[in-house]
From TrEMBL:
This is Related to pisatin demethylase (Cytochrome P450). Heme binds at C446. Its cofactor is heme. Keywords: Heme, Iron, Metal-binding. Gene3D superfamilies: Cytochrome P450. Pfam families: p450. The keyword Iron applies. InterPro entries: Cyt_P450, Cyt_P450_E_grp-I, Cyt_P450_sf, Cytochrome_P450_monoxygenase. It comes from the Eukaryota. SUPFAM superfamilies: Cytochrome P450. GO terms for molecular function: heme binding; iron ion binding; monooxygenase activity; oxidoreductase activity, acting on paired donors, with incorporation or reduction of molecular oxygen. It comes from Cephalotrichum gorgonifer.
Length: 504
């Protein structure tokens, strides 16, 4: 093993026999250099602090973003920030956060002068290589989105439903074959893992025509989940804290990050995507999937690999979180659960199954900062002057908990609020448009929204119609770490067949 130690021998010995003269000169030079550096660093820090010092925020502002991310309880910290400090909160030297729909509309609007912030460029794979999410140049982004549009619309390859139906059927087969509980025989099913097996299989089936096989093998293939669970908390810090991205893209820090060439974890899944692209381009055969639409739109091999991989990352954890949280909310609200189940039964009996499930407003699955940069001339947001270059982040969790939109009981899972007053009118329209913001807006609206909603709206009703579900450990339904990414584990659910015999 190599070890490097600094010994007194290596101190100023190269100055030879004149230590008092040259060494003193050197030491004085070094001391003034350090003093100058410290002075300019502290002036810069003061300048950074001063230019946004009028925006309220925790007194530990320089560290608040770090604290938010590392505590892992953003789902409760973000609404609390909003309620304590008001509509605009400073969470970092150059980052302020808003939580109102009006600012959201203005900032993300199609003609908005705001540009993508540092959060985006840090999501390049590998760092510093662009894809539709990470690219910050507006024209480049527009061109990429145009190439992706046909594939994401589903129009060019027969839509997403057939592939999603197949994966839902695989999910049901898995439960039927191994996880039906009965009196005296409990067979807990870890929904935390399986929800993501489901979303990963769907995303690979719709994007390149073959599911990864997580559900069929009922196994965390290549340790993908174990790998991402381990990396998400670190990755959250790296992508959200400006400065860390640059650091972690350099040797030796970059060795701490997942690499696309790794043989296990996220790297192995990237390998699977790359093989699919190589095979398709090499064979010359056409497919009925998004990959084919992207090829037809003229994307290069390199672009195809990047976009399919981004799609895998963007479309798996988010959908899995939506499924887990929707189920958690339903399973802990027995009256709502029973009502939904009987509505689904009635609709099925009438041959008109409706898509009632959805993303519960209070638990948005994509909670990245999605910072946008204030244009050079500056802007006024919620009455605060913001200088050009300030990064403006959306507090999407805070937005989903706003009492002026969702009512005084905004923190409570109570879907009946959507039906009150006839389920229409200005109040409901405002809630609907707020909830839609979980998918972003304007130029950056999530292109996978349709796919996500089909997945959620197919799987959840199917489970409710076929089974009675119960949480195995009511005192601790799941383990959760929420620092931008949701790391969810041990959500054990018990399935029993329904006595009414609903289902296929
Ligand atoms: C419930 C599930 C999902 C939620 C809540 C969600 C939310 C979001 C949000 C908030 C953004 C960023 C908007 C912004 O930059 O301001 C985004 C971008 C994106 N999403 Fe989703 N997403 C979901 C599912 C999916 C799925 C299933 C896919 C793919 C199959 C997908 C692919 C993407 C891509 C490629 C982008 C980058 C778009 C761009 O920057 O132009 N997402 N999503």
């Amino acid at each position: 093993m190599l070890s490097f130690t600094l010994t007194p021998r290596c101190s100023l010995s190269f100055l030879g026999n004149h230590p008092s003269g040259l060494a003193a000169l050197f030491a004085r030079g070094a001391a003034s250099g350090i003093a100058a550096l410290l002075l300019s660093a502290s002036s810069y820090a003061f300048y950074k602090w001063y230019r946004l010092s009028h925006v309220p925020g925790p007194f530990w502002t320089p560290y608040s973003l770090f604290k938010l991310l590392s505590r892992g309880r953003m789902y409760e910290d973000l609404p609390a920030l909003d309620r304590k400090y008001g509509p605009l909160v400073r969470i970092g030297p150059n980052i302020v956060m808003y939580s109102d729909p009006e600012t959201f509309g203005r900032v993300v609007g199609v003609r908005s002068p705001y540009t993508k912030g540092s959060f985006y460029s840090s999501v390049a794979i590998p760092p510093l290589v662009s894809n539709v999410f990470s690219v910050t140049d507006a024209e480049e982004h527009k061109a990429l989105r145009a190439k992706l549009a046909g594939g994401y619309s589903g129009r060019e390859h027969g839509g997403f439903e057939p592939a999603i139906d197949t994966i839902v059927a695989t999910f049901i087969s898995l439960i039927e074959s191994r996880y039906i509980s009965a009196p005296g025989a409990s067979r807990p099913f870890d929904m935390a893992k399986r929800a993501q097996f489901f979303s990963l299989d769907v995303v690979s089936a719709v994007s390149h025509g073959r599911p990864f096989g997580f559900l069929r093998r009922d196994e965390d293939l290549h340790g993908f989940l174990a790998d991402t669970d381990m990396y998400w908390p670190l990755l959250a810090l790296v992508v959200c804290i400006p400065g860390l991205t640059g650091l972690f893209s350099r040797w030796p820090f970059r060795l701490a990050m997942p690499l696309v060439d790794d043989e296990s974890g996220a790297g192995a899944v990237f390998g699977f995507v790359r093989d699919s692209v190589t095979e398709r381009l090499g064979s010359g055969k056409r497919g009925e999937d998004m990959l084919q639409s992207f090829i037809d739109a003229g994307m290069s091999r390199y672009e195809l690999e990047q976009e399919l991989y981004v799609e895998t990352l963007a479309g798996s954890d988010t959908v899995a979180t939506a499924i887990r949280m929707t189920l958690l909310c339903l399973l802990t609200s027995p009256a709502t659960y029973a009502k939904l189940q009987s509505e689904l039964d009635a609709a099925a009996a009438a041959g008109a199954i409706s898509r009632r499930a959805g993303v519960p407003a209070a638990v948005p699955p994509a909670t990245g900062l999605m910072t946008k940069v204030v244009p050079p001339g500056g802007d006024t947001v919620q009455g605060y002057e913001l200088p050009g270059g300030t990064e403006l982040a959306v507090n999407i969790v805070g937005l989903m908990h706003r009492r002026d939109i969702f009512g005084e009981d905004a923190d409570v899972f109570r879907p009946e609020r959507w039906l009150e007053g006839g389920g229409d009118g200005a109040r409901v329209r405002r809630m609907v448009s707020a909830v839609d913001m979980v998918f972003g807006g304007g130029r950056n609206t999530c292109p996978g929204r349709t796919i996500a909603l089909i997945e959620i709206n197919k799987l959840i009703p199917e489970l409710l119609r076929r089974y009675d579900m119960a949480i195995v450990r009511p005192e601790k339904p799941m383990r959760l770490f929420h620092g931008v990414f949701w790391v969810t584990n041990d959500f054990f659910v018990r399935f029993t067949r329904r006595e009414t015999g609903q289902g296929p």
